[in-house]
Each structure stands twice: as structure tokens, then as C-alpha cells.
Amino acid sequence: MSFDLIGTIIDRSNNYIDGQWRPAAHRFDVVDPATGAALSSVPDSGKADAQAALDAAAAALPAWRALPAKVRAQHLKRWHALVIAHLDELAQLISREQGKVTAEARAEVIYGAAYIEWFAEEAVRSYGDIIPGPAVGKKMMVVKEAVGVVAAITPWNFPIAMIARKLAPALAAGCTVVAKPAEDTPLSALALARLAHEAGIPAGVLNVVTASRAQAAQVVDVWLDDARVRKISFTGSTDVGKHLARQSAATLKRLSLELGGNAPFMVFEDADLDAAVDGLMAAKFRNGGQTCVSPNRIYVHAAVYERFSELLVRRVSALKVGPASDPAAQVGPMINARAVDKITRHIADACARGAKVLTGGKPLHVEGSGGTTFFAPTVLAEADHTMLLAHEETFGPVAALFRFENEEQAMRLANETPFGLAAYFYTRDLARIWRISERFESGMVGINEGAISSEAAPFGGIKDSGYGREGSRYGLDDYMQTKYLCMGGL
Ligand code: ADP
């Protein structure tokens, strides 16, 4: 199928409601962080738009839920094929509104598409059970059914992948969806909706409503207050996640909350240091450190601390920062000025408390780009738990090295956080691998591995990092409810 996806999305983006592109009364600008210039504008929606989207999703639910899973899977497969067919355009759109470099943007499209394919395949495997009953003349059965209308609220750091991994399991399960993408990156979500439309996904099954930061609560509150929305699936900050949990309590909605992280990354004295540096580079500097599984506290055993920091500094200082339009760029701009402020504040606080900048440490001017949010990839030595960056997610290209003397101390420090999303460690001691894996208070553990995300794996956290799992066979359950059937008189 050939059409100008980027042109349509950038020039004429409107809300996607009930299979139609509908304008709202107001619009707001979407900015390219690499240039600082407005790239497009999208509807700044309000209550009426949110209501229309919900009405459409509720109306579409009975027919979509009643389709054989195989038919829903066929819709998802067509959608997946279109996403892959438009890989380059989608990658370009991601880079332009979010800033990540081209290779990473392409990887994101493939990663996001993989969730659509995965859940197309899982849709047909939502088996129930026959329970051997304790009484004569009675049969007991369990069936799985779609929870109903789902509201999906997503962040800006992975504009395609974060929404794909909510929409795909929801649609596969037989749910219909109202979605509000992040205000910084609404275009990629609208492009996905365009492709869903082309794939023949029926009107009302998927609805996308965009809104500025100021209007986000107006839109989402409509969905929170309405009992027809049976589930909220949210990825974003812990504060907003807790707000959604409180507000949805009145109608007892189900929740999947993928919230902030503060991942520890431990390097033991027996680790393969080259592998540990490779793993850290992949986990820490992907998307300029703007990922929720990005290592935020790097604990290195005193015996290998100097060697590890030397190897790391060599790699980090060689990273090329620039816009996605520069094919050699490896780290793009930060999403906005707020992000740069936080990174700068964390570094200043750490330095005031004794940390040393080994490389980077400040915003960067990239000649000719116009962007004002580039930041030099940074390594800080001598970090400790008196510093802000030990307790808050920096969400930027800052690798802070903490020195530790023994396993017990490292474990205590690693778990000294309310968050529990990802944790990583490098060691060659098999007994220690099991010990540490069990002791980490986190939903995911990378063992001698920095790249843990996959559509085949359950992604999610514990503690203040939320609950619910995305991806894998567990991911479909979050969008299904269990119904028990008891047949008597047999
Ligand atoms: P981040 O700090 O990464 O921007 P947020 O939690 O602030 O994370 O934002 C994630 C998503 O939540 C975005 O789509 C944003 O618009 C939305 N959001 C922010 N505040 C609210 C709110 N009060 N109610 C509903 N959604 C919100």
C-alpha cells in the first residue's frame, strides 16, 4: 500500500475517533527537539473529544469482543505488516518528534511492531480450563474474556513502542481502546492509528485523542470517572500513576502501571569487565538515558573500580552527540528543557557532595542544529547515597559510579529505593548469580546482560515502579478476566 504517511500525519493530524479524523476546538504545537522548531500541530482536546472517543469504543466493544480470536489476530497481522512496510517513515517520525537517532528509531519501530505480531499470535491461545469438580452432577469451567474498554496513557520516550505494547494485547484480548499519547510525541501514535485504519481494524475499536499537558487531566478524567472504562493501562511517572489509581478507585478499574525506575547495575570483582562495559553502554545510553530501565546507580567493586571507570570513560567520551539527521550521531537531544534542568541539577548536587566529573557534565551546543537540549554523555565518579541521583531517576546520559566493598553492602544499597523495575549485575560466580537474583527487589533482572526488553518477556515492576506486565504470555492476562461457569443438573 503506498501513501504519504509522514505527510498526512504532519500536515493534517486530527484525533482518530470512531474511524474518522476529527478536529478539536483548539490545537497545540509539536516541537522537534533537535531543532527547537515546531514540526506540526495536533488537537488540544477537551472533555467532549474524550467523551466521543469513549462512546465510540463502548459502541464497538460488543462486536469486536464477539469476533473469533483468529479474526482479531488477522487484523493485527495486517496491521503489523503495514507497520513494517512503513518502517523508515515511522522511524523518521519518531526521530523528529522525540529526537532519538536513526538506528535507534528504526530499532524502536521493529520492537513496537514485534508486540503487534506477538499478540496476534497469542490472541488465539487464551485458553480456559475444565476443573475436575468435587460434586457429582456438576461441571466446572473457566473461560477468559476481554475486560472491556481500556484507556491507554503513554509517555514520550518510546512514542511507538509504549503505545503498541498496550494496544496490541488489548485488541488481541477483544478489548476496545481510547488512547492519549504524551503531549511531546503524539504524531507517532496517530501514524499507528492511520495504519490500523488501513489494516481494516473496525471503526471505534481504536481511538486516539491528543492533548497538551494542560489539558491531559481533562481528557483522562472523563475516562477515569466513567464506569464503562474497565481498565487503565499507564506508563509514566509514579506520581501520575498513583493519581490514576486513586481516581479510578470509585469505579474499581483494573490497572497496569509501568512507572519510574532507579535501576542498580552492579559490577563484581570477578566480572568480565569488557562485557560489563558493553552491557552498561547499551542499557545506559540508549535513547540518551531516557528509558525507565536505564541504570541509574552503577555499583562497582573497589578492586575493579579504577579499571572499569577507565574503560567506561574511553567509550563514553567517544559517543557522538547530534541530531538524527546526522548519520554518525549516537546520542540525540533530550526531550525538552525540563529534562536538561533535572540532569543539570543532579550533576550539580552530586558534585557539591563530592562526586567528580570524569567526562561530560554539561549541556552541549551542536553546531548548526538549532536544538538547545543536547547534553554531553557523562561519567561521574565517587557517587554516594547522600546525592539526589541515588534516590531519583536522572533520565539522562549520566553514568554515576558508586564504589562498594562487599556483596552485602552492595545489595543493601541497591535495594535502598522505593522503586523496583530493572536491576542488572555482572559476575561469573554461579552461586552469587542465584543469590543476587533472588535478593533484588525488582520486576526484572539482567544477569551479565544489559539489553533485557523483548516482546517475549514480561516487562514490569514492583514497589513504586507499579504492577502489571507487558509482553509475553503473561501480558494478555492483564486484559482478560476470568469467568467461572458452573453447570448443574447433569
Ligand atoms: P513524564 O514525566 O515522563 O512526562 P508523566 O507521568 O508526567 O511522565 O506523563 C506520562 C503521561 O501521563 C503523558 O501522556 C501525560 O500527558 C499524562 N499525564 C500527565 N499528567 C496527567 C494527569 N494529571 N492525568 C492524566 N494523565 C496525565
Structural key phrases:
490 residues, alpha/beta, 7-stranded mixed sheet, 6-stranded mixed sheet, binds adenosine-5'-diphosphate
Estimate the helix proportion, in percent.
25-40%
**How many individual β-strands?**
22
Work out the strand percent. Answer: 15-25%
How many helices? The count is 15
Organism: Massilia terrae
InterPro entries: Ald_DH/histidinol_DH (IPR016161), Ald_DH_C (IPR016163), Ald_DH_CS_GLU (IPR029510), Ald_DH_N (IPR016162), Aldehyde_DH_dom (IPR015590), Aldehyde_DH_Superfamily (IPR050740)
Protein name: NAD-dependent succinate-semialdehyde dehydrogenase
Keywords: Oxidoreductase
Provide a compact summary of the structure.
By secondary structure, the protein is an alpha/beta fold. It has helices at residues 5-11, 47-66, 69-85, 87-98, 102-123, 161-173, 186-198, 213-225, 238-247, 273-285, 305-317, 337-352, 407-414, 430-439, 472-477, and strands at residues 15-17, 20-22, 27-31, 38-43, 129-131, 139-146, 149-153, 176-180, 206-208, 229-235, 254-258, 263-267, 295-301, 356-359, 378-383, 398-404, 419-420, 422-426, 444-447, 462-463, 466-467, 480-487.
Provide structural commentary.
With 490 residues, this protein is of the alpha/beta class. Helix content is 39%, strand content 21%. It contains 15 helices and 22 strands. The chain has helices at 5-11, 47-66, 69-85, 87-98, 102-123, 161-173, 186-198, 213-225, 238-247, 273-285, 305-317, 337-352, 407-414, 430-439, 472-477, and strands spanning 15-17, 20-22, 27-31, 38-43, 129-131, 139-146, 149-153, 176-180, 206-208, 229-235, 254-258, 263-267, 295-301, 356-359, 378-383, 398-404, 419-420, 422-426, 444-447, 462-463, 466-467, 480-487. The strands form 6 sheets. Strands 14-15-16-13-12-18-19 form a 7-stranded mixed beta sheet, with helices on both faces. Strands 9-8-7-10-11-21 form a 6-stranded mixed beta sheet, with helices on both faces. The termini are far apart. The model has no long low-confidence stretch (mean pLDDT 97). Residues 153-155, 180, 182-183, 213, 216-217, 220, 236-237, 240, 243 line the site of adenosine-5'-diphosphate (ADP).
